[in-house]
Amino acid sequence: MQLNLPIISPQNIYIYVHENNLKEVFPNVYISLRLYLTLPVSNCEAERTNSKLELIENTRRTSLHQEKLNSLVRLSAEREITNALDFSDLIQKFSELKSRKKPLS
After folding, report:
1. Residues 11-18: contacts with CB under 8 Å, at least 24 apart
2. Exposed, middle or buried: residue 45 (CB in 10 Å: 0-12, 13-18, 19+)?
3. For site-directed labelling of 28, which of 15, 41, 86, 98 has its Cα 20 to 30 A away?
4. Is residue 65 a contact partner of residue 58, using CB atoms and an 8 Å limit?
5. Any residues with CB less than 8 A from the CB of 91 and at least 6 apart, and which?
6. How does DSSP classify residue 61?
7. Residue 23 near residue 17 (C-beta atoms within 8 A)
8. How far apart, in whole angstroms, are the C-alpha atoms of residue 22 and residue 11?
9. What is the pLDDT of residues 38-93, one digit of tens each?
């Protein structure tokens, strides 16, 4: 005899508890499900950050200070956000401030 039971996943249980206001009845279950559903599946993010750090350290080891190294690692690890930024105004202002040449006029 085969039973046709619905597939119950942790996400479905969480949604059921949330939608039926059972958080007060089963607070530990609710918290446990929230934690379970938010845990990372793998440690790829940490490994990616470490590999970027090693790459940057190897290429610039002698000339970088710790603060600059941390900034470069953060920019490299979050490259999706960095690539979306528009730096044209910042570059223009920087070039105006750092310009050492006087106009000939």
Report:
1. 11/37
2. exposed
3. 41
4. no
5. none
6. T
7. yes
8. 15
9. 876 665 666 666 677 777 666 656 555 777 777 878 888 888 887 787 878 778 88
Task: Assess contact for 75 and 82: CB atoms under 8 A.
Answer: yes
Q: What is the pTM assigned to this prediction? A: 0.35
Length of the chain: 105
Please list, residue by residue across 15-38, b when 16 or more beta carbons sit within 10 angstroms of its beta carbon and e when fewer do: eebeeeeeeeeeeeebeebeeeee
CB count in 10 Å sphere of residue 53: 16
Q: CA distances (Å), 27 to each of 8, 18, 22, 33, 36, in order?
A: 19, 11, 8, 10, 14
One-letter identity of residue 44: C
Token pair 């599946």 in the structure block, residue: 41
